Amino acid sequence: MATMESLIGLVNKIQRACTVLGDHGGQGMSLWEALPSVSVVGGQSSGKSSVLESIVGRDFLPRGSGIVTRRPLVLQLHKTQSGAEYAEFLHAPKRRFTDFAAVRKEISDETDRITGKTKQISNIPIHLSIYSPNVVNLTLIDLPGLTKVAVEGQSDSIVEDIENMVRSYVEKPNCIILAITPANQDIATSDAIKLAREVDPSGERTFGVLTKLDLMDKGTNATEVLEGRAYRLQHPWVGIVNRSQADINKNVDMIVARRKEREYFETSPDYGHLASKMGSEYLAKLLSQHLELVIRQRIPSIISMINKTIDELNAELDRIGRPVAADGGAQLYMILELCRAFDRVFKEHLDGGRPGGDRIYGVFDHQLPAALKKLPFDRHLSLKNVQKVVTEADGYQPHLIAPEQGYRRLIDGSITYFKGPAEASVDAVHFVLKELVRKSIAETEELKRFPSLQNDIATAANEALERFREESCKTVVRLVEMESSYLTVDFFRKLHAAPEKKPEKNGNPPGPNNDHFHDTSLARIGSNVSAYIAMVSDTLKNTIPKAVVYCQVREAKRSLLTHFYAQVGRKEKERLSAMLDEDPQLMEKRTQIAKRLELYKAARDEIDAVAWK
């Protein structure tokens, strides 16, 4: 079985690695939170700082009146075999502190950096690691002291803000609560015990610490509390004798202070029978032993959480893509695979698997018929214009029976109007296809990491769509021109075979100079041409969509990137690498995920090796 120090030391190591990688918060439970730690809770001036310094054996925390701890201090103690003691801050990783007075100043400066030189608080923690042969492996979190009133310079919500911050730490199931209470205060009014009782009603996570035992009124003692009679916890109470203010002013060494503390309990008539279970040294060992026990109990759930997170990180790496290969052939293959992924999404839009393709049908079902109905045939086939066209077509010799040249000119002029809606349909479908290209690129997950390739694909696809548009435009114009080039003779033969209505007898003989007969004849010409144009309109309303789909939609599905594939195949390796130039933010994200993945795998292996060997 692994030693206690090796197991807790491993947890400290993993927690520090998590901190460096920023894996200590966010949604769900992080590995940092899954590993047990000790949160130090107490009212202001309860002696929290003195307890921490006694455990560490160093004088390193800022002191003063009122609220001194204004940001959480995550303190990781690392036991070393030998060598000099030193400290490191996460925010200054390249700087090693051997002067603990400088550590105190750095904590104050770093606190002021976030909160300013005010009495406000911040929930952004300061991370400090201390390496020493005189400490036990332990992670302690020093939290701002609970208070009952706001003082000048603090917001009215400071009392609630501090309690909410402290509660956010101690309510976590893996948090061990170190509740600090001064012995010269009624235990029933202890802020630390009150909060601990709320978040840990069973008391299985709470350790009670009584400070300032030497400052109690003469003739009184705290044996009822320390022996668990006044307020029982699942774990034994521990009494602490802090350094006096005179000792602090004289810079009395912490080792000397520990010795004085031991002597106090051993010689005390009130606490002598409890001396072996009192003092800061005993408290540190007790917490370390309990921490080791909790870690062992949590190992199965920690391993399970690690395995789940490893699976999630691997899935995230697969989603954003693995690192790009350096080999030119592999890069070409990757580009082609990414293009195919885009092509699949684009076809899904056209075929109905994704929205957007239905807009093409909307062009044919609504836009084209509406445009055809708006064509100015009424003006073109008015009596005045029919007369003008027919007269001009006859030239110097009027027609004898039917004005065939007039008919043809009127039909040609009418058919010409169809070019506008035909070309508009081509452009409308072209616009939809371009929009689908844009959406498809945005929706292709594999492409998101390569902005340069996205631009290359968009350019190539739009160039192809432009070629398809030009061919489609030529085709629909040909369809319109075909209707002009050869008229449907049977239509007019049927009109000629139909009986004509005889003009009413009004005493005026029919003749070329009769205005009434002339208007009727012109109206009949206009009506005949209008009927023929309606037939042509119905034909084009069916054939234009066929041509557009054949020339644009069908070709977009079949060969949108065909030219691009040929160009890519001829590119040099350097150009291929440039096409796979990734978004720097995505590269950084992948790097961080890879580091976290490496951390979790190493943590799993090391926990397995240390815990069960």
TrEMBL record:
Domain GED positions: 522-613
Annotated Pfam families: Dynamin_M, Dynamin_N, GED
UniProt xrefs under Gene3D superfamilies: Dynamin, middle domain, P-loop containing nucleotide triphosphate hydrolases
Database matches in CDD domains: DLP_1 (cd08771)
Claim: Cell cycle is one of the keywords in the record: yes
Entry keyword set: Cell cycle, Cell division, Cytoplasm, Cytoskeleton, GTP-binding, Hydrolase, Microtubule, Motor protein, Nucleotide-binding
GO molecular function: GTP binding; GTPase activity; microtubule binding
Principal localisation: cytoplasm
Gene Ontology biological-process entries: cell division
SMART domains: DYNc (SM00053), GED (SM00302)
Quaternary structure, from the entry: Forms homodimer and may homooligomerize and heterooligomerize to form the phragmoplastin complex. Binds to PHIP1.
Protein name in the entry: Dynamin-type G domain-containing protein
The organism of origin for this protein: Gossypium barbadense (Sea Island cotton)
